[in-house]
Write the structure tokens for this entry.
Amino acid sequence: MDLNLSDEQRLLRESVDRFIAETYDADHRRRSAGDPLGFSPAIWKQFADLGWLALPIAEEYGGLGAGSVETGIVMEAFGRGLVTEPYLATVIIGAGLISECGSEAQKQAMLPKVADGSLHLAFAHSERAARFDLAHVDTVATKTADGWRLDGKKIAVIDGRAAGQIIVSARVADNNGAAGKLCLFLMPAGTQGITPRDYARLGGGRACNLDLANVQLPANALLGDGSDALPRIEAVVDRALAALGSEAVGIMQIMFDMTLEYTKVRQQFGRPLSANQVIRHRLADMAMHCDEARSIALRAAVMADAEPVARGRAASGAKAKIGKSARFVAEQSVQLHGAMGVTEELDIGSYFKRLLAFDTLFGGSAHHYRRHAALGGRTPPHA
Amino acid sequence: MDLTFSPQERAFESEVRDFIAQNLTPEMKRATALTPSVFSDPDIGMAWQRALHKQGWGAPGWPVEHGGPDWTPAQRWIFEAECARAGTPNVNVMGVKMVGPVIIGFGSPEQKNFYLPRILSGEDYWCQGYSEPGSGSDLASLKTRAVRDGDDYIINGTKIWTTHAHHANRMFALVRTNDTERKQDGISFILIDMKSPGITTRPILTIGGDHEVNQVFFDDVRVPVANRVGEEGKGWTYGKYLLEFERGSGIASAKLRDALKTVADLAESDATGRAIDDPDIAVRMSEIEVDIDTLEMTELRVLSALQTGQNPGAVSSLLKLRVSEIRQAVTRLGVEVIGNDGLYVEPMRPLYRLNEAPGIPEEMLPVVPEYLNGRAYTIFGGSSEIQRDIVAKMVLGL
């Protein structure tokens, strides 16, 4: 039992903290927001040079073989900087799915390119009717003479525009046309039949909706051996939940630090705001929520490779709990900044929006408490 | 970074399990489950303390020279967790965990030699004389006065909310020995024999129907000056040390997990019509479970820091707030889970020695009293409002 950082982990934290502090400020964020990709390719190259893109990738594919604790350290610092580079979409989810499901050839072809920064990935999975049910996919893959045909509509594809390869989930139609196993397909950017609708994402970065109509893919577009991918999608999404939790912790902490500082400086009625007990107690509660979020995010990271039920409960528990805590810290940060808190003139609003996006991604607190209860055998699944 | 214990720690865990299996009688276990107040009655609690003492485990936090077992922080964690899981009696903490460390830290050699062995063995039973009718959260305003008369102090005044004063043969108390400008500077820490002439104890019944706390009156009570711990006027410092000692060694998640399991077992039983099938109850149980997971991680973060000799820092002062709130959430859910059977009132105590079979399943008896008594968790030991003041001042530097 040891929750102290190792020397390597401490060095990683120092290096990513330093990079974020030196590189990311409001000006940088405005420039990134103006980039059509929503981030800076030059910075992405620096991430690659620093080894951060290689972190969770296995060593035989040019990676460093690190785990969710390490990616959590990176994500927490990214939260503080409101980083928009597509680390989640490419490194955590995209490379995660290829590592979990891909054939040897597919891993050899793509993972080293993720590690060296030359390939971006995205995951097209969510659909309007599914809400946050990972098993609910209506997009259909039909076997053709020389490959596959995909038809369906995907939404909220994070950083889809930047991706060289989009990983699409679809139900494979059997001979009678009925939907069967859930499989993943590699769809190169610009494939005919894709109608993308790209948009600026709440809280920074970009996302898109994809309409797929008669998209023709070769036979080797199927990721892996064609067995049902749902358990592996769940494993990767649980890791994404842990990573997002760490990012949220970084955002919550900086919002709290900024708010604490502001209440000391802002004078009303001839004394600082923080002299008032109602404000002091609010700040004490915010500090507690930040610390609780830190604990439960760490738990999700440490449990990210546990057996599926324990892993899923840790991930959903963390998503639910951090969602609740983040909402409190974010809303109170705006509240305590007064009218300035609802303007675009302070950073508080940017952080606020990123936490709102965090809460939405992969489902909010209510959804994840229900999943936690269901995995614990308390309620039937999908209650 | 990992959450698993080493082979040596696993071996220690089996040792603790074996000890519990051999020493925790079914009567003790049942009595503990059916006790809706904070501490077990002395017949149950002290029987367990004697068993622990015989094993050399009577005072886990004490230094070896005074009879501590020399455990690592991880061993203490494992011990507490195993005890909670098994449902061992809740030994009154006033002796081993509260006055003991103060005597060890500031007592004279004579006081150490006399009191410490008697705490370990359970021969002495302690209560705490801090709060007064006019001094609750503002403890330093206390007025119980000790006036010097030769080799004695003469004590007059009253203490209140004194847990188990009706069982205790000794009290440690904060008394005013001086009227100083800063009221904290006139307070001394004193050890009182509860058999002394002039002491009377009045029971106070709490809303759960339990007699756990009392008011204690002092009328010209003579206490030898030799019973003062440390210097005159330094009592406030010693009293605060005691609270910090408690905070640093807080392991609460295991007990809360056990309490939630009791509620979950009721919710899954036919006796409650399977309350768990109500999705709202199932989800709220998950919410509390995640809160306990969070608390456990925070405790383990503190433990990890302690293991490597680091100062865990501010984290531990946030714990008391959450522990008391989670405890209340568990007891509130318990009341909802038992539904209509929560209307049944059992006035007799102890619940494990009733003359007649109760009108509801026995395991439901403590549920409502635990909720009612449990409202005190956010009040005693510094109310939640005071805790937030402390966090603002000590943690946030406001």
